[in-house]
Amino acid sequence: MSRGMWSIVAAAAAVLGFVLGWAGGVSHGRQEVLKDFQSTARQAADTLRQSDPLASSILKAGTDQANAQDLAVQSASHLFKIGMGCVMYANEHHGDGPAKLSDLVAAKDVDDSGVLACPIPGSSYVFLGYHQADPDTAVVAFDKPADPKKARDGINVLYHSGVVKPVAGDEAEKIAAGKQP
């Protein structure tokens, strides 16, 4: 295969990987497909790195963006599981939510398979508590970046209703500061 053809294949794999990561939701099957495409893109990048530096840099940018999307989807999935654990905990404790995230593991409402660890490098989960409040606006937890300024770019937020939404801008900054919207 010619160098130009490899460039086209690699770029297509990177674009498709990004699209699948962006639209993939939390489906396990889609995550597996995304990982396969990311692997293919990485292999193509290794081949191109020495023969075509420009195509290699374009491919790397697409792969990095797909990886970031994949990590955001994994974080949203973790937050969803934390939300379901909070509901189960509250049902078992007469409506009282957990005081801290580790209570969910102790009560076996969330397994300790890494769900409490944020997969986004430099980020961690902040738990504000699971209290009786307006389920559509009360924030239970969110993934907080190490650099507070990056919250403006977007964070995943778990609401009392169990819904996980991406939030950006002023609202994300407010939530990252530990304030309810």
Description:
- By secondary structure, the chain is an alpha+beta fold.
- It folds into 2 domains: 3-71; 78-176, no CATH class.
- The chain contains 5 helices and 4 strands.
- The chain has helices at residues 3-23, 28-51, 53-92, 102-106, 169-176, and strands spanning 123-127, 139-145, 155-159, 164-167.
- The protein is globular, with a radius of gyration of 19 Å.
- The relative contact order is 0.11.
- Residues 1-7 and 18-27 have low confidence and may be disordered.
Oligomeric state of shown chains: single chain
Q: Give the number of helices.
A: 5
Strand order of the largest sheet: 1-2-3-4
The portion of residues assigned to helices is 40-55%
Uncertain runs are: 1-7, 18-27
* Element-by-element helix/strand order: HHHHEEEEH
- Overall morphology: globular
Q: What structural category arises from helix and sheet content?
A: alpha+beta
What's the gyration radius in Å?
Answer: 19 Å
Q: What fraction of residues sit in β-strands?
A: 5-15%
Average pLDDT: 76
Q: Could you give the distance between the termini?
A: 55 Å
Number of extended strands: 4
* Structural domain count: 2
The biggest beta sheet, please?
A: 4 strands, antiparallel
